[in-house]
Design goal:
Layout: E1 6-7, E2 12-13, H1 18-35, E3 43-50, H2 56-66, E4 73-78, E5 88-94
Parallel strand pairs: 3-4
Antiparallel strand pairs: 1-2, 3-5
Length: 97
């Protein structure tokens, strides 16, 4: 399932813009990967859903922090709406081990 920018401490969408939401989504995904005993280096594909494609550059700056070299294959789409009014949702496929 895709992840949106829910703060695990509050259960609510984080405040701020696309960069804050992107960072929270990636931190949530990092926690999921860690629980599965894997990490971002094992991600082979990600799919990104943006509320507005004009936010792509700001999104990509944060995304690049988590994939500084050899990022996985990625598809990015603008969508009509995301859960809770989120600006970004990301799903990932990663190898285990």
């Amino acid at each position: 399932a895709g992840q949106v920018a829910i703060d695990p401490a509050t259960g609510k969408l984080v405040e701020g813009g696309i960069q804050e939401q992107t960072r929270q989504v990636l931190e949530n995904l990092k926690a999921i990967l860690t629980a599965a005993r894997t990490d971002f280096s094992k991600v082979v594909k990600s799919t990104v859903f943006l509320q507005d494609i004009k936010h792509f550059a700001d999104f990509n700056r944060v995304y690049a922090e988590y994939f500084p070299s050899e990022p996985p294959a990625r598809s990015t789409f603008q969508v009509g709406a995301l859960p809770l009014g989120a600006m970004v949702e990301i799903e990932m496929i990663a190898l285990l081990g």
